[in-house]
Amino acid sequence: MSGGKRIGLREIRGLGTDQIIWDGAVAGFGARRRSGTAVVYIVKYRTVGRRQRWHVIGRHGAPWTPETAREKAKIILGDVADGADPAAEKRAARKAKLVAELCDLYLADAEAGRLLTRRKAAKKPSTLATDRGRIERHIKPLLGRMGVAAIEREDIERFMHAVAEGDTAARIKTGLHGLARVQGGRGTATRTVGLLGAIFAYAVRHRMRSDNPVHGIMRFADGRRERRLSDDEYAALGAALRQGEADGIWPAATAAARFLALTGWRSGEALGLRWSEIDLARRTVRLADTKTGLSVRPLSHAACDVLRALPGMAGERVFSASRGGPETMLHLKKFWPRIAKIGGLPKEITLHVLRHSYASLAGDLGYSEPTIAALVGHKGQTITSRYVHSADAVLLATADAVANRTAVLMGEDKPASEVVPLRGTR
Fold first, then answer.
1. Could you give the CA distance from residue 6 to residue 27 in angstroms, rounded to a whole number?
2. Is 368 helix (H, G, I), strand (E, B) or coil?
3. Distance between CA 297 and CA 47 in Å, rounded?
4. In whole angstroms, what is the distance from residue 121 CA to residue 293 CA?
5. Is 171 exposed, middle or buried (0-12, 13-18, 19+ CB in 10 A)?
6. Are 55 and 42 in contact (CB under 8 A)?
7. CB 375, CB 298: distance < 8 Å
8. Which residues fall within 8 angstroms of residue 36, CB to CB, at 6 or more apart?
């Protein structure tokens, strides 16, 4: 049965056994009754490969009425136009009976770019690698064999405390000679529970369960950003970098660590930096793909001096690897413990601590949060909103002031280059 009018309640009541009616307003949207009194709303469409699919929206009755089902059909057809195949996705989702299978489906969709972050962008490869590590090393060992529908809030709480107490800690062989240390702790537990929340939200969207068991879980405070270098630790860091250079530690590693201390950048931003992104004349870097999107950063004279001391070729990575060619940079995190050990720095001082220390030092010097955010590229505060091509004199002067203070604390001379003066000052 077909017709050119919109499906309404009268048409639904008039459906006979084994009948289908099609909507006159939304092509492919219809209603079907097979046997008995139940009526289901359906969408018929063709995939990118021109395969015809039938997708069931739901049975007539709350929440599905002709109007709500028609709106849902529009959304589904829009997704199909973007390359989705909801019928196939629904069949795959129903196969995920165990948490391990659910995690695999989540990762597959994330890697295909079908899961978006809060910035409405696909997850970055580095984020996906972190997610996969937490799934394989914490979630699957403790929850993987449990049913998706059987997980309760108490299971999530037990999981969080188990990870915090080190139940999943291990030493795992990676590759021929690599060895990864899987550590627990409260920070790891908190962040992994956050990932579980996203995974179960995915399960709810795909109708594998009706609720998210992570909602309402009281997590540990994540204090990873609270640590900063003391004045003595800054001095120890400077001495360690100079001693490391004298001892023959890979020069790009000591240069990268010094650059991070002088800029407050994320380590991934520095390690991915290319010469083609740098304008030394304007003391500006244009990063096209950061955690917060496009970002233009000011460079202090001290940071420029670090870059000028490195050999470079246009288009290649600035901090190139000791092995594997100029496009490979994998070793800084392996060299950092050696640098920290030379300086006698505590184990909790990581490369990220350099970033937090830079921002804290800028605060000590009296700079505002928006200004600090522009220097280090915090979300929503990168200077691309106001400065498209290069940083202005105010931000350059601020970058110089913070870097100079950092250099003094590290026992290094201030850069000889002149600092750009602020307008109206003498």
1. 10
2. coil
3. 44
4. 9
5. exposed
6. yes
7. yes
8. none
Burial class (CB in 10 A: 0-12, 13-18, 19+), 418: exposed
Domains and CATH numbers, the chain: 9-84 (3.30.160), 96-205 (1.10.150.130), 231-409 (1.10.443.10)
Phi (first) and psi of residue 347, to 5 degrees: -65, -25
| 318 secondary structure, DSSP code | S
Model confidence pLDDT, tens digit, residues 66-120: 999 999 999 999 989 888 888 877 776 666 689 999 999 999 999 988 887 776 7
Give the burial string for 276-313 (b: 16+ CB within 10 Å, else e): ebbeeeebbbbbeebbbeebbbbbbbbbbbbbeeeebe
pTM tops 0.90:
no
CA distance linking residue 76 with residue 112, whole number of Å: 18
Alpha helices in 112-185 (DSSP H): 125-134, 140-143, 153-164
Q: Around Cβ 369, how many Cβ atoms within 10 Å? A: 12
